[in-house]
Amino acid sequence: MLVEALHCNVRFVGEAMGALSSGPRTHDQLLELARDDFDLQWDTAAPVRDRTGWLAVTGMVDLFDRQVHLTETGRRVLAAMELGKPDPDETDTVVQFGPTPKAIARLVEQLDQTGLKERADGANLYIPGVAANGGVLDALQVLTEAAIPSISDADFVRSVQSTFPKAQTVATARTAKDTLKALGLIQRTSSESWTATPAALAWVESGEPLDLARIVHASIAFFGEVLGELDQTLRPTTGTITERSSLYLPNRGKPLSRSAVNTRLNLLDACGLVTRLSQTTYRTTALGRAFKESLPGFQPDNSVGYALSDGATENHHRDSPTGINHQTSFLGSHIAAELEDAARDSANPKRLEKAAVVALGYLGMPGQHVGGPGAVDGHVRFGVGTDSRILAIEAKTSATGPVRGQPLFGLSEHRARVGAHVHLLIGPGFERRMLKEADDDPAIAVIDTGLLAEVVRHQEQTPLTLIQLAPLVDPALKAAQRGDALRRYWEAQDMRSRLEYALVDILNAEAQDPLEEGGWLDLTSIRRELRTREYRVDEGTVVEALDFLASSRIGVLQRLEQRYRCTASVHTAGQRIRALGSQWVAATELHRQARSGDEVPVHS
């Protein structure tokens, strides 16, 4: 039934009917209920009106006397529904814990600041099975029990494949095994076999989710610490949590992926430590707060990467037409956050116009804000020199969801005034008819602010060239196609980084082998070793990566005809690559000072 489908997929549909079962309410009263009892951060009653409109069309409610009334049909349907409601935010609730098994207590006792800092990053976590309703706990228990008393690598792979229908490849099964190791649940007994750790045995025996949470907190960084990040007055999103993760990973130097953070959140949810409020927001439960206080946690340096003040955006606007100045530390994260906030600020549409220009400028498309009646909201330049082209900007805000009912006529005249042939229609999603009209126009590229913010955030850690960013502004692509095209480039960049790491690691191992003279490997042997590590890469890509690592700017490999050997550790390779970024920042500052007339230091 349609209403049941809506209730299962959209928050505050069946719950609104439940509220009406005790008597009619106004839209404002339903809005207050949605805010107070369901943590829905709605500024107006428009989302409530959308839902009561759906319910009225399906006969569940009747609207009269400025109130919403539940019909008899609605009551019958409501009786068959399972309603959800977040746990109350009981900050004063006293929580008492049972005794912790000795093997697990010892892990927690060893967590001083050095121990916390030495935990694994947990950057590539995968738990097969269903994430919801505690399914992750069941999956971890099944996999841990498979290693009691021990299990071989091959049997573990077969166990995962036979138990979890969506984990059929060998690579996926191995990732699940690596996840159990990272979470502190299994350990090697030989080069080919595994067994459950003493702490994992204690958890399997107790069956207590908090025992598992303690093991995980002792094993990987940014697990229990997530509870503190969520327990803020201004509720963070998963995107914000992902950005903040870098502060808790001193050995990594960059944020976790969104999937790695979501895996942590799913596990915390299954253990009852957080409550999921929406697709991107969670809240720490009373149990979660007490649990966090019972554990030692890593204390991050909040001054790192967050030196920009709340007013940083206005300062950027004064520095240059693109809004980008020489302060680059975590600038992309701030630009992305401003873009997302501005998209919902319907009372101040110019804020989004400026934020869009700043975001595109950060991606290498310099431009300026214009605004005003009969004019484009802004324009940017894509490309350099004679091959460049002007892109006009039309920014649309909406505080309550997709933009709806906004006219698109007159855009061609606006484009002509700035010499543009393409318009970028930017906003927080667009209702179906408006989106179709824009997507069908060969001169309009529709860009969701959520995607644009994602691209800006990625540009800090996985930067794309302007050519690779072309799908973002290509009017030939539908709005729904842009994200997939860009994600393919991000995946390729991530794969290239992993390939470079693997090459240095392979050649390091060869150099340390006492039976190998000089540590040299030819291209065929390198590719054979890559295949054993599940890398299926063509020869040209391997040679390109090797030549990059052997270049004078990196210099961690040596090349002799078609043979290579390593001259530095993996750690040193990472330092060299990071140093290039620092050198570019310093060079940019020198050029900026020279252009502004500041004194530039001269070194003899």
Helix content: 40-55%
Helical run tally: 27
Please give the radius of gyration in angstroms: 28 Å
**Strand adjacency order, main sheet:** 8-9-10-11-12
The description of the largest β-sheet is:
5 strands, mixed
Secondary structure tally: strands: 15
Walkthrough of the structure:
This protein has 604 residues and is an alpha+beta fold. It folds into four domains: 2-79, Winged helix-like DNA-binding domain superfamily/Winged helix DNA-binding domain (Arc Repressor Mutant, subunit A); 103-293, no CATH class; 312-477, 3-Layer(aba) Sandwich (Restriction Endonuclease), CATH 3.40.91; 491-578, Arc Repressor Mutant, subunit A. The strands form five sheets. The chain has a five-stranded mixed sheet with strand order 8-9-10-11-12, with helices on both faces. A three-stranded antiparallel sheet has the order 3-5-4. Strand 4 (186-190) and strand 5 (193-196) form a beta hairpin. Helix 11 (198-206) runs antiparallel to helix 12 (209-219). The N and C termini lie far apart (79 Å). The model is unreliable at 303-329 and 598-604 (pLDDT under 50).
